[in-house]
Predict the structure.
Amino acid sequence: MSTPVVFIISAPSGSGKSTLTTELLRRVPNLRFSVSYTTRAPRGEERDGEHYHFIARDEFERRAAAGEFLEYAEVFGHYYGTHMNEMERAGRDGYDLVLDIDVQGARQLKEKIPAAVSIFVLAPSRRILEERLRARSQDSGPVIERRLKDAAEEIRNYSRYDYVLVNREVAASVDTLVSIVKAVRSRRERMESEIHPILETFRNG
Ligand code: 5GP
């Protein structure tokens, strides 16, 4: 049982966070996406247990009251939360975890797990964020306006994060994310179990 490294990735909607996260998970071994609980309805291709665990509001409230969530928040009128079991399972299986959570959740998690590594993803400008939101044509005009307003609010929280990634181009951004994960995994305290057998080979030499 090891302690998983928790990587928190937050970004305003339209910043390209889910593409980056998917690519990161594809590139790095032993890294797992933390599947959150939510009270919002599934969209398009989303499947229960894979993108989210979709549950009713009363069930969420019951689980929250029972202290099952490491963090939870209300975002756009729906609850979202990270279940404790995600950490336990990752530790048992020897995986690190990637959490795609909002700024409120990131704050709660950093308080509980100070060693968590947080990354804030930014679009290069408001204009580019707006273009991306319109291009994915998932939302109506007023919804896009609302998302841009929310983005302006969320962006103010960047200074709470350990890393900031300006997402100009997907491939370069994924490289940066991979580098962050590799650097954190190379920290001396994470390397102890690997170092000792190496030192053993030098013992009587
Ligand atoms: P969406 O509904 O677009 O999938 O997600 C909306 C927002 O909720 C995103 O900013 C996402 O990062 C956030 N979110 C997703 N899961 C969690 C969670 O478990 N906890 C918190 N605090 N936010 C979450």
Observations:
- Residues 13, 36, 40, 71-73, 75, 80-82, 100-102, 104-105 surround guanosine-5'-monophosphate (CB under 6 Å).
- The helical segments are 17-27, 57-65, 84-93, 103-112, 126-135, 141-155, 170-185, 188-201.
- The longest helix spans residues 170-185.
- The two ends are 32 Å apart (CA to CA).
